[in-house]
Write a structure and sequence with these properties.
single chain, about 200 residues, alpha/beta, Rossmann fold, 4-stranded parallel sheet
Length: about 200
C-alpha cells in the first residue's frame, strides 16, 4: 500500500510515516517514480512494540524498581502486548536529564510506553510528553492512575529545592564572572588607548 494510505490506516500523519520510513522502521521501498510502497507485515510489527519504563528516585529503592518493572511486565502480558524492552532508571522524577528516558522518547519504534504510575515517567509535564507522543502516533499507557507513595514525593521535593538553590547560586557566580570579564575588557581597552 502507498505510504499515505498506510499513514491513514495507522492514524498518524504522513510526516510521521515518512520519518518511520527514513529511519528504517517500515518494511517499505521507494519506487523509481518516488512513490513509497509499504508491505503489509509492517503494520503488525509497528502496532505491537511496547516498552515498559520503571523508575525510582534513589538507589535504596532498587528492590522496588525490580518489582515495579515486574508488575508492569505482568500487566503487558495480560493485555497481550509484545514487550520490546524494559527500561529501569534511578533518578528524580523532576530531573529532565535522565538518559534512559530521553533515549526512549527519541526511539520511534517504541509505539506504546507503559508505566505503573504517571509520576514514574515524570513529576511535571506528563501531558506535554503525552501530547507530543500522540503527534508521532505513539502513546503512554498508565497502569494505575492513583497517587504514589509519600516518601518518593518527598525526595523529589528535596530535589526541586536543591536544583533551584544550585541554579540561584550558579547565577550569582555567573554574574560575578561576567562582571570580571567586562572589567578586564574595559581595562584592556583603556591600556591600549594609552599606548
Amino acid at each position: 500500500m502507498k505510504l499515505s494510505d498506510y499513514a491513514k490506516r495507522q492514524g498518524v500523519s504522513y510526516r510521521t510515516a515518512w520519518r518511520w520510513f527514513k529511519s528504517g522502521i517500515l518494511n517499505a521501498e521507494q519506487m523509481p517514480t518516488g512513490t513509497i510502497i509499504v508491505r503489509d507485515d509492517t503494520a503488525t510489527r509497528i502496532q505491537e512494540l511496547t516498552v515498559i519504563y520503571a523508575r525510582v528516585s534513589a538507589a535504596e529503592n532498587k528492590s522496588n524498581l525490580d518489582s515495579q518493572a515486574e508488575r508492569a511486565r505482568q500487566y503487558c502480558v495480560a493485555r497481550g502486548y509484545q514487550i520490546g524492552g524494559i527500561i529501569k532508571e534511578i533518578g528524580s522524577g523532576v530531573n529532565d536529564q535522565r538518559p534512559r528516558l530521553i533515549k526512549l522518547l527519541n526511539d520511534p519504534t517504541a509505539r506504546r510506553i507503559v508505566v505503573e504510575h504517571k509520576d514514574r515517567l515524570t513529576r511535571f509535564g506528563f501531558n506535554y510528553i503525552e501530547t507530543l507522543l500522540k503527534q508521532q502516533g505513539r502513546s503512554i499507557e498508565v497502569i494505575n492512575m492513583a497517587a504514589d507513595g509519600k516518601e518518593d514525593l518527598l525526595q523529589d521535593f528535596i530535589a526541586i529545592i536543591t536544583s533551584f538553590c544550585a541554579r540561584l547560586y550558579g547565577q550569582r557566580r555567573s554574574k560575578r564572572k561576567t562582571e570580571k570579564i567586562i572589567a578586564e575588557l574595559t581595562d584592556g581597552q583603556g591600556a591600549q588607548k594609552k599606548k
